[in-house]
Each structure stands twice: as C-alpha cells, then as structure tokens.
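Sample pair:
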Amino acid sequence: MPPIQDFFIGRNYPYDPARGTIEQFKDMCTNVYHWGKKRKERKRALKALREAMAAQFSASYGSNDRSLPAWQNLCGVLDVQDIPSSITQCKKIIEHIYVNIWDLVDYSVYSGRPLLLHPTERALAVYTLTEEKVYPREKARANGLLRFLLRQILNPRERR
C-alpha cells in the first residue's frame, strides 16, 4: 500500500488518489476531526503526513542522487523532452524546472491530471504559499534527489 494511502487509512479517512493530498488532509482535519491549525493533534498528523510524503517520493522516484536511471526517470516525469545521458546534465536541466513537491508526489500516485510546472521560481512561490503546499526543507534535504527540487519559496529569485 502506498505510504500516503496508509497514512489516511490509519486515520479512518477515505483516501482518494485523484484528489490532492494536502486538500484531503485539510478536509480530514477540519471536517472529520475538527482540528484547528494550532491543535497539537493536527501538527502531529501533519508531521506524520510529511513522513508519508517523503516515503512516497522515495518509493516512486528514488533517493540515490548517484543513480542515472533515477535522474532520467525524474526528467521524464518533469516532461524533459530529450532525456540527458549524464547525471550532471540532468541536474542542469532540473535546476531550471519549478514544480511543487507536494504536486510531484501526488502525481506519482495518480497521474490522471497533468503535472503543474511553473515558469519561474516566483510563480512557484506564489502558488506554493497560496495553496499551503510548503514542503519542509529538512525532509527534502534528507533525500538525495528531492534536495535538487528545493527552491526559494519565501524569498524567490528572479531568474528563470
């Protein structure tokens, strides 16, 4: 069972892979458990969900940043047209791709909707903050591949 699905089933919530994970988390907290944003239970549940998201990313995309097949798979998912033949080339391309990590993990579970790629870091930052889809930096840094998807959300750079 995928880690995200396991998270929701463990909390008696009917997980639907066609819906966004963060959207379902908010629904579960608000309408099932009636937890406000400051409740300890909600914070604990969010921490557990982040663990599930990290596990789901690793299961879907890998974690070894020295694996060319993992990098090539990630490039393919990110809609890179000509998949590079080296890790260095993959990194250079991915450095200029702006995708929300929550969305990327959701896409690994349900690819029935297109993966939203943003034209700039600023556009990604606005989307991420508006949708409340901030992925914790420390979780991303723990995964070799995921670390390369980190972007400046609170202080976005102007470059493309």
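Residues 3-149 form one domain.
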